[in-house]
Amino acid sequence: MFQPLTLMTTGDYDHNVGSSSGSARPGSFHRRLLIETLKQALRLAEAMVEKKAIDPVLLEVTDFVSYGDYLLIATGTSRPHVEALVEACTAEAAAQGMTVLNSEGRETCRWVLVDYGEVLLHVFQPNERGYYDLEGMWLDAKPIEIPGAEPSSYPAGFVAS
Questions:
Q1: Which domain holds residue 88?
Q2: pLDDT digits (tens, 9 = 90+) for 26-65
Q3: Which of the two ends of the chain, N or C, has the fewest CB atoms closer than 10 A to its terminal CB?
Q4: 3 belongs to a structural domain
Q5: What CATH number should be reported for the domain holding residue 133?
Q6: What is the pTM of this model?
Q7: Exposed, middle or buried: residue 66 (CB in 10 Å: 0-12, 13-18, 19+)?
Q8: In a domain, 74, yes or no
Q9: Alpha helices per DSSP H over the chain
Q10: Are 94 and 47 in contact (CB under 8 A)?
Q11: What Å distances lie between residue 62 and 1, 35, 96, CA to CA?
């Protein structure tokens, strides 16, 4: 994901800045920022694993969207379980200095979306996760292994109908 110029110094860009093509490729600063964001996403995922999230998935979407770098998707078995998963992530995010930019769906807890900036959290109840099939929408995204997560109960290549 391209970072605004105001966040980087000229030394942080590759030598392509100012080339005739006009394209600027972020350099080491962007890579460091992406690594820090990945660490944050993994800490959120581990908080969900501790609360027994079902089939947590972490996807790197940096190359596909401009609004974030990682999607964290999981299932809760009931409204209280979804609430517990979201609260665990929100507490972990606060401990890391992350801010909730937006949150939707907490009234019903069927599908809760929490925007932490570069990490977007989606927590579903089972029917909604199958119906919306976010993993199916992001087949080209790079999956990131979540330490301690149980292997998916879905077969490889599964797409909800």
A1: 26-144
A2: 566 566 777 888 999 999 999 999 999 999 999 999 889 8
A3: C
A4: no
A5: 3.30.460.10
A6: 0.75
A7: exposed
A8: yes
A9: 28-50, 79-95, 126-132, 134-137
A10: no
A11: 5, 12, 21
Average confidence (pLDDT) per 10 residues, the chain, 161 residues: 37 34 49 83 95 95 89 96 97 94 95 95 95 91 89 53 44
DSSP 13: B
How many domains is the chain built from?
Answer: 1
Residues in the chain: 161
d(CA 139, CA 154): 15
Amino acid identity of 10? Answer: T
Q: Are 26 and 34 in contact (CB under 8 A)?
A: no
Query: What pLDDT sits at residue 148?
Result: 86
Rounding to the nearest 10 degrees, give the CA dihedral for residues 61, 143, 87, 96. Answer: -70
